[in-house]
Structure formats: structure tokens, C-alpha cells
Amino acid sequence: MRTVIVSGGTGALGRAVVRAFLDAGERVVVPWIAKGERDEVEQLWGAERVTLIEADIAEVSGAARVVNGLESIDVLVNTAGGFAGGSPVDETNLGVWDDMYRINVRTAVAMTQAVLSRMRGQGRGVILNVASRAAFDQPPGLAAYNAAKAAVAVLTHTLQKEVADLEIRVNAVVPTIIDTPANREAMPDADFSSWTAPERIASVLLWLASDAAASVRGGLIPV
Q: What domains, with CATH codes, occur in the chain?
């Protein structure tokens, strides 16, 4: 049984990822910051199946709190993220830029820093990120989000090069719009049939974490 940390594991995508790894027989650790979401996760799977740790993973201290006490860390899945947009660059408040960076990039960096020393010591590990097609299509009005997800893609490539001499694999999935209740509420007139179900993304992440994907490194996998 491996130990898998799922950052953002209380969200819509994160829960699908948690379920996929639990069904595969793994031990799952989930940081949380919103008590309501934490309680929902515990009701779904029970505290005996999921280790829930209160932590702000955008902070060094919070990320460290997640990994402290774990005997080993086999997989980190950075699903923590968020979306905001709808205005041109010159009309987008700098606070939105800060929020998009903090939620999408800083969480991934802080958690990666927290697990890397352990993975280096073990000589193995898997780190998986969630980028977005928006980083490459770069739709207008979403510059802050586009840039944040582009940073996740760059982080993935760069980190893989830095650990190339170790058995540490770093990859990212690149979904289109994820079919979540929040996204449906935000875009009620959209064609939901073209969106990607969280379960489909979770299945790809599960495969990337498996031995079957041992040769996939630094990949940006469309989903």
C-alpha cells in the first residue's frame, strides 16, 4: 500500500482522485482548509480510510504539516486550484492575479518542496500536477488563469529535468473545462457535453502514478 497525498482533495476533482486511489487500495492523505468540505470527505469515506490534515498548503508551514509524521510519501497529486476571469488584462485586478497564482501555482510549489526531500531520500516518487488547456489556447479575458496554469506546465517540465537522475517522475494532465457543479453554475449556457468529467481525469492520474507509466516523464497529457 502506497501513501498518496491529494492536495485539493476536498474539491470536485480532488474527490474523484481520492476515490480512484482508495479503490486502488492506496492510503490517501488529504489536506483541508474549509471545515464543511472536510466533513463531507469524512462522511464519504470515513477517517479510517482517509487521513485528513488541516493545513493551508499555500504556506511552507502548512505544506510541512501535511508531510510531517508520514513514514513515506509515494505519490503527490496537486489537484488544488481555482478559476477566475472574464475581463481583459487591463481590467483584471491585481488581486485576481495574486489569487490565481496562490491557488494554482503556489500550492503546487509548496507541496512539491515539502515532499521532495523525502522522495530524494527514498530514491523514488511520483508528482502529478493539473494544468489546463487554457494555458495553451490562451482564451482572451482569462489571462491571470491562463498564466497560472502555464506556470504549472513549466513547473512540471523544469522539475522533471531537476530530478532526471532519480526515480522520481513528474507529469501533468491538461484537461479542458472540468465538468463540476461550480463550473456549470458559472457557465450555465455552455455545452457541458464537451467538458471533461472529473472521473476521467482521475483515471489518467491513477495510471500516471502506476508502474505502467514508468517511462512517462515530464509529460503534459491532454484529457
A: 3-222 (3.40.50.720)
